[in-house]
Amino acid sequence: MTETRVPPPESSLPEHSASSPSLTARLRSLTPARVGLGRTGVSLQTRDLLDFQRAHARARDAVHARLDAASLASALGGITGCAVLRLHSAVPDRTRYLQRPDLGRILDAASRDLLANAGAGPWDLALLVADGLSALAVERHAIPLLEELLPRLAGWRLAPVCVVEQGRVAIGDEVGAVLHAQLSLVLIGERPGLSSPDSLGAYITWQPHPGRTDAERNCISNIRAEGLNYAQAAAQLGYYLAEARSRQLTGVGLKEDSNLLSEG
Question: Which residues of the chain have pLDDT under 50?
């Protein structure tokens, strides 16, 4: 006869069990992920359901928000001392931006003309700030990050700074090529998550030109208060930029040296 095993009551479960309040509290202190959520019958508790819906709404708002390009351009000019160009991708509106990523990788005709008349380099670095999938991330983090990064770029020849609306990462390839810049650095809003509607990404490309692939770039992501802070991100960016110029490459061939970063 098969023996029927009755599970022990919850109070007798060991402390390491997933239902242990102490373990759940420790897990929640380490991650913003939704762990150990309570239940009401077979459903989530109302509190947790409403929290999820609010996070989802914030992520959607971040995707559809419009960048205040004028204010951002003014602030960038103030901290960089460079001319600032306001550019636009070939995307006519936000709906098309989400449907046609390819159009977000190239400039529209007016921006191409403006850039061509800006004066070609050679420049050491072309700096772009693009809204990407979260204008909120750019508006919150681009200026504080650059305030940490710019002192590390003393002596670098900086091209006119470009603010790009409805831009994707690869738009830095066209901009960098037209400006004859050795390197491009694109600061861009990343795809929002349910706990991170304002995450900023940074992409570095050696000798940017149309046709570059993501394997030929270095990326630093999750730049925000709850992720990689400005000082840490600036240190990593400074390292990658210096190494890229020294070794004349970016991408899979350029790896992070954690020892050098910790010393910096």
Answer: 8-18, 260, 263
* Among the listed residues 109, 125, 136, the one whose alpha carbon sits nearest the alpha carbon of residue 179: 125
Is the separation of the CB atoms in 148 and 187 below 8 Å?
A: no
Its domain, for residue 118, covers 68-263
The CATH code of the domain that includes 197 is: 3.40.50.11240
Q: What is the pLDDT of residues 129-178, one digit of tens each?
A: 999 999 999 999 999 999 999 999 999 999 999 999 999 999 999 999 99
List, for residues 61-71, the tens digit of each pLDDT value: 788 889 999 99
Q: Is residue 125 part of a domain?
A: yes
**Gap between the Cα atoms of 9 and 211, Å rounded:** 62
Residues 208/126, Cβ–Cβ less than 8 Å? yes
CA distance 149 to 72: 17
Question: Would you state the structure tokens that stand for residue 201, as one six-digit string?
Answer: 């990404």
Domain tally, the chain: 1
Contact 131, 189 (CB under 8 A): yes
pLDDT for 55 equals 79
Contacts of residue 213, defined as CB under 8 A and 6 or more positions apart, other chains included, come to none
Distance separating alpha carbons of residues 264 and 86, to the nearest angstrom: 34
